[in-house]
Design a protein that fits this description.
Layout (H helix, E strand, L loop, with lengths): L9 E7 L2 E6 L2 E6 L3 H13 L1 E6 L10 E3 L2 E5 L4 H20 L10 H18 L8 E5 L6 H6 L6 E5 L7 H4 L5 H8 L4 E4 L2 H14 L8 E4 L2 E7 L6 H9 L1 H14 L4 E8 L6 H14 L7 E8 L6 H21 L7 E5 L4 H10 L2 E4 L8 H9 L6 E5 L12 E3 L4 H12 L3 H16 L3 H13 L5
Parallel strand pairs: 1-4, 1-7, 4-6, 7-8, 8-9, 9-11, 12-13, 12-15, 13-14, 15-16, 16-17
Antiparallel strand pairs: 2-3, 5-6, 10-11
Helix pairs in contact: 2-3, 9-12, 10-11, 10-14
This protein binds adenosine-5'-diphosphate-glucose.
The site of adenosine-5'-diphosphate-glucose (ADQ) has 19 residues, from β12, β13 and α13.
Length: 467
C-alpha cells in the first residue's frame, strides 16, 4: 500500500523527472514515465502534495514549473556542455565506473568536476524555493551527491535524505578520486543516507571516518554538530504489478506464443538488461558459448535470448560494448546455430511490461550475472512473475539482490567455466528442486514491496527509530 507522509511536505529530487515529452503531430505533451521509482513515489506526491525536481532530458527547454498527474514538476534544464561534462562525463565516465569497482577506468577530468559542481548547484537553487519550513527532501543517486550540503548551508531546518541506487566502493578505491572529501562532505549534510546493502553502507562509513572528521560507530556518524543515520534500505519491486500481469489471461497466450516461436521442446535461457558493461552481458555470452562447445547441449536443445535496452549511447565505453556483444552473437551463431535453429537471439530494444513478463514466464533459466550491481531488480521481477513456481535463477554474487535471494544458483560472473557449469546444472535441475528454490525466492520477494521500501526510508527521515 502507498505509505502515508504525515504532515511534512515532500520534495523528490532525482536526475530525471518522472515525466517525458511525447510528440503528437505538431504538438507535444507530457506523459508519466514507467519505472520503479516513479511508481513508488508518484502516489505519495499525488496524495500529500509535493514536488519532483529533475532534468527533463535533452538540451535546454523551459525550466518553468508545471503540474502533471497530481505532481508539481520543476524541470532543471541542462546546456549541451553540462550534458557532456556533468552527465556523460563526471556521472557516467567518473562515478559510474569508480563506484562499480573500477570495471572500466574512471576518468578524473577537472572540467567534468567543475560541471558536476555547477549542475548540483543548479539543482539546489531549484529546490530551495519549493520547500516550506521543516520539509523533507529526498535526493536520489550519484548524480546529485553535493546537493545535500548545498541545501543545508542555506536551510538548516530541512530534513534531508539521500539514497544511493548503485554500490559505494571500498574506501581504497574511493580514495583515488581527487574530489573525494568534497563528495563525502556533500553527502554527510544529509540526515539519513541509505544504501542497497549493509556491506556498501559499511564502505561509506569507513570512507567517511577515514577521509573526513566524521566519528561514530554502528550506523550513526557525527560531523561537527550534525548527526547522520547511515543504513541499508534494499530496494524492492511492485510485486502486485508483476503478479497481476502474470495472472492475466493474455500473459498465458503471449508466453505460449513465445515458446512456440523459440521451439517448444528447447530450453529457453534468458538475459534482460540495460546494455551496460556492469551487467556482464559479454561474459554471459562467453559462458553460453562454453556450454555449446562442451557439446552436452546443442542449439537443438536450448537457445539463449538476450534482450538489451539501449543505454548511454553517447558514452564511448557503451558504444564499444555494443559492438563487442553484436560480434559475440554473430560468432556463436556462426559456430553453433543449426538450420532453422538460432543459438543466440539478440533483441536490442525496450519491451513493454506485458512482453517482459511473458519472457520471464517463458524462460526455463534466467541469467542475472552482473559483474557488480547495486541491487538488480530483474532478479526480483523474474521470481515475482514465476507464478507456476518453477524456473531457475542464476544470480551473480556481486549483485545486491544476492543478499536476499539466497536460493538462487549463485555464480561468480568472472569465472566462465563455473558459469557454464551452473547453466548446465540449471538446465538439468529436477522440477522438485526448482520448486523448492523458487518457493524460497518468492517468499523473499513477497516479504516487502516497493511501497514498504519508500515508507521505511521516509519513516527514518522523519526520525522514527524503528524504521
Ligand atoms: P539499473 O541498473 O538501470 O538501475 P536494474 O535493477 O537493472 O536497474 O533494473 C532495470 C529496470 O529496467 C528493471 O525494472 C527492468 O524491468 C527494466 N528493463 C531492463 N531491460 C528491459 C527491457 N529490455 N525492456 C523493458 N524493460 C527493461 C540502478 C542500479 C540497480 C538498482 C536500480 C534500482 O544500477 O542496481 O537495482 O537502480 O535501485
Amino acid at each position: 500500500m502507498p505509505p502515508t507522509n504525515n504532515d511534512r511536505s515532500l520534495v523528490i529530487v532525482a536526475n530525471r523527472l518522472p515525466v517525458q515529452r511525447v510528440r503528437r503531430g505538431t504538438t507535444s505533451t507530457w506523459q508519466t514515465s514507467l519505472g520503479g521509482l516513479v511508481a513508488a513515489l508518484h502516489p505519495l506526491l499525488r496524495k500529500h502534495g509535493g514536488s519532483w525536481v529533475g532534468w527533463p532530458g535533452g538540451e535546454g527547454g523551459s525550466s518553468r514549473a508545471f503540474r502533471h498527474d497530481g505532481m508539481d514538476i520543476k524541470p532543471v534544464t541542462l546546456s549541451a556542455s553540462q550534458i557532456e561534462g556533468f552527465y556523460e562525463g563526471f556521472s557516467n565516465g567518473t562515478l559510474w565506473p569508480l563506484y562499480h569497482d573500477v570495471l572500466r577506468t574512471p576518468r578524473f577530468r577537472r572540467s567534468w568536476w567543475r560541471s558536476y559542481v555547477e549542475v548540483n548547484q543548479k539543482f539546489a537553487d531549484a529546490i530551495e524555493p519549493l520547500v516550506g519550513p521543516g520539509s523533507m527532501v529526498w535526493i536520489h543517486d550519484y548524480h546529485l551527491q553535493l546537493v545535500p550540503k548545498m541545501l543545508r548551508q542555506r536551510r538548516a531546518d530541512l530534513r534531508i535524505g539521500f539514497f544511493l541506487h548503485i554500490p559505494f566502493p571500498a574506501p581504497e578505491l574511493f580514495a583515488r578520486m581527487p574530489w573525494r572529501t568534497e563528495v563525502l562532505k556533500g553527502l554527510l549534510a544529509s540526515d539519513v543516507i541509505g544504501f542497497q546493502t549493509r556491506a556498501v553502507a559499511q564502505n561509506f562509513l569507513r570512507a567517511s571516518r577515514r577521509l573526513t572528521r566524521a566519528t561514530g560507530s554502528g550506523c550513526t556518524l557525527r560531523l561537527d554538530d550534525h548527526t547522520i543515520r547511515v543504513q541499508p534500505f534494499p530496494i524492492a519491486i511492485d510485486i502486485e504489478e508483476f503478479e497481476t500481469l502474470a495472472n492475466a489471461e493474455s500473459a498465458g497466450e503471449r508466453t505460449r506464443s513465445l515458446r512456440a516461436k523459440f521451439g517448444p521442446k528447447r530450453k529457453l535461457v534468458l538475459g534482460v538488461d540495460r546494455l551496460d558493461y556492469t551487467k556482464g552481458i559479454d561474459v554471459r555470452l562467453r559462458a553460453i558459448e562454453e556450454v555449446l562447445r562442451r557439446g552436452e547441449f546443442s542449439a537443438r536443445d536450448m537457445c539463449f535470448v538476450q534482450i538489451a535496452v539501449p543505454s548511454r549511447e553517447n558514452v564511448d565505453d557503451y558504444a564499444s560494448l555494443r559492438r563487442e556483444v553484436e560480434q559475440a552473437v554473430g560468432r556463436i551463431n556462426g559456430e553453433y546455430a543449426e538450420p532453422g535453429q538460432v543459438a543466440v537471439h539478440y533483441l536490442h530494444r525496450r519491451l513493454s511490461r506485458e512482453d517482459l513478463v511473458a519472457y520471464y514466464m517463458a524462460a526455463d533459466v534466467m541469467m542475472v550475472t552482473p559483474l557488480r550491481d547495486g541491487m538488480n531488480l530483474i532478479a526480483k521481477e523474474y521470481a515475482a512473475s514465476r507464478i507456476d513456481g518453477t524456473g531457475v535463477l542464476l544470480l551473480s554474487e556481486f549483485a545486491g539482490a544476492a543478499n536476499e535471494l539466497r536460493q538462487a544458483v549463485l555464480v561468480n560472473p568472472f569465472d566462465i567455466d563455473g558459469m557454464a557449469k551452473a547453466v548446465q546444472t540449471a538446465l538439468t535441475m529436477p522440477p522438485a528442486e526448482q520448486r523448492r528454490r523458487m518457493r524460497s525466492l518468492r517468499n523473499a520477494v513477497h516479504s516487502y514491496d516497493l511501497y514498504d521500501w519508500a515508507a521505511r526510508f521516509l519513516g527514518a527521515l522523519r526520525g522514527d527509530q524503528d524504521a
